[in-house]
Specification:
This protein is an alpha+beta fold. The strands form two sheets. The chain has a four-stranded mixed sheet. The chain has a two-stranded antiparallel ribbon with strand order 1-2. Helix 2 runs parallel beside helix 18 and helix 4 packs antiparallel against helix 11. It is 52% helix and 7% strand. The longest helix is centred in the N-terminal third of the chain and has 21 residues.
Length: 451
């Protein structure tokens, strides 16, 4: 029987642009544009500034562009600030199998390696599709892994980044498999930063990007990687998830269903498991624009074993005090409260409301609970007012157009997030370049227009 690493390597190494349908190509462009936009929004965060200072200290001359400044350095160094900027406001994409923020690892790696190796736009699109597929499939047992304390992105981003780097370096199928085996032997990371409100979570995809480039380079130079790094008795699945049951799902419909099509996008800068609750709060706030000071209680019921909305993830139930922005971004309670108070949730609002006493009081009046019989985007929300009136919302109030972006909505989101940083003219130029990405002979034309 073909091992999981061998199957993923065969597929990802053999994928060609001509194999991709128009809808897959279109979704890849949405993913790339979204990451660039969110990175612009993240540039002002201290997390991104730390990453840039570290990359500058580590780096030597290279061809890969740092989006924040326009300077060039080695790909392995440029991905550090680019990935952190794309992830540190927690508004980047995610997928429901691996529960990973795939874009923040795959897209910066693909762009940096494309610049370093001279790959064109068609190569970039194909690599991004392969990276999303490999990473999401690698995380087929992600739920038992993160319930044990591992962070999904800090485990599975290594595989997505390695797939991208291996393609850009032109590895053959055997070398590709060795690189993925190497990735599985060095990946890992825990969820504790969410409980402590520390910064490391926003660097985890960047660590995966750097390790992916290293793994691919080592395989090119002769490294022999583990053949059974997923299904082995001491492999990724048994070690992180405690089981091998269901792991063959990683190869289901391989090459016929592209996981990038399932990508979810975030309307709000909060965890993927909070997007539904935030959207319901948004719908309630705009349907019933009551003064937040009249709110006596907020009740939120989410699925006990849900695949989308959930509670069993570090930091989601935290109600303050919010000493760091990082604590705000993961808290479902904070997300609902800030939207009910202000009518929206943006990174600028998060920063301005972080220590607001009235917002903290609203968080303290919010109750989370789990309910049987719900799944997916299903949830229930009740907002009780001081006169006993109860305003009710449910998963039916979620505008899913913002979760599964079309190109027009993606460009609108890009302008809203990146416009204040790069300006309308530059943003439109980037949109136009991504829209015709397959025509570009060099991706530097795109990324060197970002700073």
């Amino acid at each position: 029987m073909e091992t999981i690493v061998a199957g993923l390597a065969r597929y990802a190494q053999g994928l060609r642009f001509d194999h991709l349908s128009p809808d897959v190509i279109a979704k890849a462009k949405v993913c790339i544009l979204d990451v660039l936009g969110i990175a612009a929004g993240g540039f002002g965060s201290e997390n991104a500034k730390v990453a840039l200072r570290a990359a500058t200290s580590l780096s030597s001359a290279g061809k890969a562009t740092v989006w924040m400044t326009g300077e060039t350095m080695r790909a392995i160094d440029a991905v550090l600030p680019n990935s952190v900027a794309a992830h540190c406001i927690l508004q980047d994409d995610w997928l429901q199998v691996s529960h990973s923020h795939i874009g923040a690892a795959v897209v910066p790696t693909a762009l940096a390696m494309a610049e370093e190796t001279g790959c064109n736009g068609r190569d970039l699109i194909t690599a991004v599709v392969a990276g999303y597929d490999v990473e999401d499939r690698a995380g087929s047992l992600s739920v038992p892994a993160f319930t044990r304390g591992f962070r999904a992105s800090s485990v599975y981003s290594y595989f997505g980044a390695t797939a991208v780097a291996s393609r850009m370096l032109g590895l053959d199928e055997a070398q590709f498999a060795h690189a993925l085996g190497c990735a599985g032997s060095v990946c890992g990371g825990v969820l504790q930063p969410w409980n402590d409100g520390s910064m490391e979570w926003s660097f985890q995809e960047a660590f995966g990007s750097r390790a992916g480039i290293t793994a691919a380079t080592l395989a090119r130079e002769g490294l022999i990687g583990s053949r059974t790094v997923f299904e082995g008795t001491h492999g990724v699945n048994k070690s992180f998830s405690g089981t091998n049951e269901g792991e063959r799902a990683a190869l289901d419909r391989l090459g016929s269903h592209f996981h990038i099509l399932d990508t979810c996008f975030k309307r709000f800068p909060t965890g993927g498991a909070n997007q539904g609750s935030a959207a319901v709060a948004y719908a309630l706030r705009h349907k019933f624009p009551v003064d937040y000071r009249r709110i006596r209680r907020i009740g939120i019921e989410v699925p006990k074993t849900g695949s989308h909305e959930r509670m069993n993830y570090a930091g989601i139930g935290y109600a303050g005090p919010f000493d760091t922005v990082d604590q705000c971004l993961i808290s479902k309670i904070f997300a609902v409260a800030i939207i009910l108070k202000t009518g929206d949730m943006t990174i600028d609002l998060v920063r301005s409301e972080q220590r607001d006493a009235e917002l903290r009081s609203l968080c303290q009046r919010t109750q989370l609970s789990e309910a049987e019989g719900m799944n997916g985007w299903q949830l229930r929300m009740e907002v009780e007012l001081d006169d006993g009136t109860v305003l009710s919302g449910s998963g039916a109030d979620i505008d899913q157009n913002h979760l599964y972006l079309t190109w027009p909505l993606a460009t609108r989101k890009f302008h809203s997030v990146a416009g204040p940083v790069w300006g309308a003219a530059r943003c439109q130029r980037i949109v136009d370049l991504v829209d015709r990405l397959e025509e570009l002979d060099s991706v530097s034309t795109l990324v060197r227009g970002t700073p």
